[in-house]
């Protein structure tokens, strides 16, 4: 039995759900609205303008229960906006974070004429497809070791009208010769590899629901950088640039990995002024 009565309105059900969600979410009211819009098949503005006095859809309570169990809203509704674009997401991919938009902005500012782009660990395709959406002459390859992630990225390339300029390839930088068939070199390389320490204290909604293979990278979170960064030089065109997302406390350690590999580095910060991206060339 839903905790609201059949004669209740959408507005009353949202109010009640927001109270129950407050224990598991910092954004309880917003979550309650987004889940209601999804249950109604409406946008959030349609919900607020047209549906608030209407009847509560049957599926709403099940969605609220999933959120109370800490499942991220993006997985429940199957979508996350990134760089102003709608991306399909599933539990096979990391949910694109607003913090990663600085990597896209840096790429567009630093290499506005890039033609050949490689995205290492593409997941939903968010980084690659956001960059391609702004560079109509460019072609991109997204690689991932997860077939489930590649299926999500392919769906996004299609829905964003970028499939003709995007190749999505199963590959793993831990495997020798993984890049031989990709046809480099590249003007721009993007990467948001796993970089979380294995025992880091993470929100339950992250640790229990997002793919471990996209998050964790050894005791210091540096294992993937140690494998991937020394391989960048061989993948970059002479004037190419690689942009790699880092955790905010990892700038020195990851720069040192680049310097040891003979690369120059530059640090870029996110909107909160924290270290977020390292450039390598
Ligand atoms: N930014 C993500 C988080 O803190 C981690 C992303 C990653 O490991 N690539 O949850």
From TrEMBL:
Pfam families, alphabetized: Methyltransf_31 (PF13847), PrmC_N (PF17827)
EC number(s) from the headed UniProt entry: 2.1.1.297
Gene Ontology molecular-function annotations: nucleic acid binding; peptide chain release factor N(5)-glutamine methyltransferase activity
InterPro entries membership: DNA_methylase_N6_adenine_CS (IPR002052), HemK-like (IPR004556), Methyltranfer_dom (IPR025714), N5-glutamine_MTase (IPR050320), PrmC_N (IPR040758), RF_methyltr_PrmC (IPR019874), SAM-dependent_MTases_sf (IPR029063)
Positions that bind S-adenosyl-L-methionine: 121-125, 144, 173, 192
Catalytic reaction annotation: L-glutaminyl-[peptide chain release factor] + S-adenosyl-L-methionine = N(5)-methyl-L-glutaminyl-[peptide chain release factor] + S-adenosyl-L-homocysteine + H(+)
Keyword vocabulary terms for this entry: Methyltransferase, S-adenosyl-L-methionine, Transferase
Top enzyme class: transferase
PROSITE patterns documented for this protein: N6_MTASE (PS00092)
Protein residues bound to substrate: 192-195
Function statement: Methylates the class 1 translation termination release factors RF1/PrfA and RF2/PrfB on the glutamine residue of the universally conserved GGQ motif.
Name of the protein described by the UniProt record: Release factor glutamine methyltransferase
